[in-house]
Structures are given as C-alpha cells and as structure tokens.
## 1
Amino acid sequence: MPGIGKLMRGILRYRTVDRVHMVEQFKKIRDNPEPTAVFFTCIDSRVLASRFTYSQVGDNFIVRNAGNLVPDACKFSYDSATTEAGALDLGCITNGIRHVVVCGHSDCKAMNALYDIRHECDEHSGSPLQLWLKKHGEPTVKKFSEMQENIELQRPLIFQAETENHNFEAIIDPENKYKIQDKLSQVNTLQQLQHVASYPFLKEKLSKNEVRLHAMWFDIYTGEVYMFSRARKVFMEINEHNYSHLLYDADSEMAIKKS
Ligand SMILES: [Zn+2]
C-alpha cells in the first residue's frame, strides 16, 4: 500500500501545476458563484466525478458516501441528522442550485454488500457499513424485489421523482449486460431521487420545477457515463449521438411542467 508520502507528493505537484490558476478561479467566482448541481455519488476511489464531468472550480457541490445514498426525510431528525440533507439545504436553498444529480456506478462495493444482506434489513445489527446500508438502503431492496418480480411479468418499475404526482417508469438493464449487483445499483440510483424529493424544504421548488432531479450511472468497466432518460425509460450512454435527446428529455420535462 502506498504511504502518505504519495498523497503529499500529489500536493507538491498541485502547488507547482494548478495552485496559482485555481486561486484565480476562486477569486473569480467568490462574489458570483453559479454552481450547476448538487451531485451525490459514491466514495469509491474510482469514481472521479470532477474528472469525468470535466468540472471546474465552482461548478458542483459534490457529496460522497458509501453507495450514493440519500436518506429519506422520514429518517431525518436531530439525533440522526445527515450531511446529505444539509448539502441539499446549502446547495438548493442557500445557493439556489437548480439540479440535483444522483450518480451510481458499476462494481459498487456498497451495493455488492447491500445485495449480500438484502434479506437481513430488519435485523438492526452489524458493522457500521451494514447498519448504514440497512437503514438507508431498505427502500432500494424493496424496489429491487419488485424488479425481480416485474422481470417475469415484463413490467417496468415505477419511481417517484419531483413530486408525489410525478412518476416515471424504468426498465433496468434491458439488454441484460450487467451482473445482478449492478442492476441493484441502478435501481438504487433511481430510488434516491424519491428520497431527495421527500424533504419538505425542497417541495415548493420541486413543484415549481425550480429544482430538477437527474440520475446518472458511471460504468467502471468501460469508463462510460449514463444518464437516465425518462422518455426512453432506460439509462442511456452520454455520447455525441445521445446528447441532444438526453438534453431535450430533461428540458422538455421542465417545459411540460411549466405550461
Ligand atoms: Zn460505490
């Protein structure tokens, strides 16, 4: 395992290559910040969200945890305050950010672990990671069970998005390309949109389409990034061919809700 020196040598390189330019950027956005999104993703060391979105200083508020989970508001209290709700408050309310992205990924160790304990969510014991997954991953497990039943019935899954009346359908991995744990990861990513929408302080902005929810998924195996298309009901690769459709899909949802 590399020692702390590797990290420190990285800082030396940053000081030589990037520091001066970044300080200029800090000054530039200090009085006029215009961040694009609150971006929830996994802590996995391979998921470099700033890199694959080509983000610059000031672009995104990035929140990372094991499994890119956003606890449902019903599990939030003084005794169980979580950073995810705090980040939504700071991002969407204080800073007026209009987009919330939840980005899962393939070969997610947290999702692999959730898959292994999916039948034990009622048992409130285990390691810290297991407790985190059991407490906040339970809705994902329920939706995943529904998916397995629906596969036989060939029915799409239904998820809630911005409001209780704003549902969308999803067909998970229609080409059956991914292993079962990756399908769970995709279900989990979509489920988190409902959890974001569960916070009362966001409801007005969500109902007026002043805050929009998006799901993305990073494929560790190919390095490709997918975005969920509500029109097509599937995760679609973000590439030159699909870009216009995906953008239109996101924008037209806004136009429909506004009219
Ligand atoms: Zn992960």
Note: Residues 42, 44, 67, 105, 108-110 surround zinc ion (CB under 6 Å).
## 2
Amino acid sequence: MIKRPIHLSHDFLAEVLDSEALAVDATMGNGHDTLFLAQRAKLVHAFDVQEQALEKTSQRLAEAGLTNARLHLTGHEHLDEFVTEPIRAAIFNLGYLPSADKSIITQPQTTLIAIEKVLNLLEVGGRLSIMIYYGHEGGDVEKDAVLDFIQKLPQEDFATMLYKPLNQINTPPFLVMVERLK
Ligand SMILES: C[S@@+](CC[C@H](N)C(=O)[O-])C[C@H]1O[C@@H](n2cnc3c(N)ncnc32)[C@H](O)[C@@H]1O
C-alpha cells in the first residue's frame, strides 16, 4: 500500500540513524516518535510543554526497556539549552495531542525558532521530518509559516521535499523533509 506521510517521515529518518546518532523529538506527545528514535539512535532529546506527554512517553520507553531518551518539560524553542552536539535526525509533529487539551497547539513563532535551531545543529547528511497537521484553528497560519520558511532555505545547503495527499478531502496531514547538504 502507498506510504502515508507519517510512515515516510520515519523511513526518511531511519535511513540515517545508527547507534552513534543524536536525535531530537521536538513534539513528544504520546511518545510514538520518541520510541521510534530511541530504538535506533544513541540518545534522544524529546520536548513537550505538557506533563501528560512526559508521563505517557516515559511509560512507553520503560515498557520497551529503553533508557536512552531525555524528556524535557519545556518548549522546543529552548532546545539549544539542552542539545549542543550535532543532531543526526529530528522530527516535529505539529498541531495538538488528540487525547489531551486541544487548545494546547504548536505555534508558528516558536515552531520556526525551534526548526531554525535544529537546522543550525543538524549534521551534514542529517535529516529533519516535519509532519504538518493544520485542520485546527490556527493550523493554516502555522502551515504557511513553515512552508514559507523551508522554501527560502538556500538550495546549496539544504535539500527539501514535500509529500502530500492530492485527492483526500478536508485537511490531510502532510510531510516536509529536509536534509543538510553541507
Ligand atoms: C501532534 S502532537 C505530537 C504527537 C507525538 N509526536 C506522538 O507521537 O504522539 C503535538 C505536541 O506538541 C506539543 N507542543 C505544543 N507546543 C509545544 C512547544 N512549544 N514545544 C514542544 N512541544 C509542544 C503539544 O503539547 C503536543 O503534545
């Protein structure tokens, strides 16, 4: 079956992850992406502003017997206070956590700060996946801000791709992929 954007977001990162890699989950939520990264990287730094996200994620990691993730209860816009080494792979899942307070959403301004900080720390050959959910109020503004920012990245330094359903009704999530070239 054709790959969904969420699956491609993982496959894209899996290709560059190994036991030496540092990875970042910028939007921890229920911890699905943190678990995925922790299974493949040396160390993962994960961020969320909700206590519930840290609880769910630490439970998920404990069930898998993984201890190589650092969970930070703070916004991803502060990630450089915790991550100073080069990043091999990073993921963002924008929007809200379905099982929680739907008014707590990622915001364009802080999302862009965090994306810029990740790109500054990305290794050559390192990759970033951004899953864009934009069906909620304010989601459109964030989608446009992220696309505008990514489109302006210099092509000598970054390769960028968009993976998006074309005939699905409503506002299906889509994927933006970035790789640092030099
Ligand atoms: C779509 S959910 C993430 C889903 C998650 N990746 C998973 O596997 O379940 C978006 C998450 O971003 C979090 N969030 C909102 N603002 C944030 C910020 N400034 N920094 C980090 N996380 C933030 C929300 O609390 C929410 O848990």
Note: The chain has one domain: 5-180.
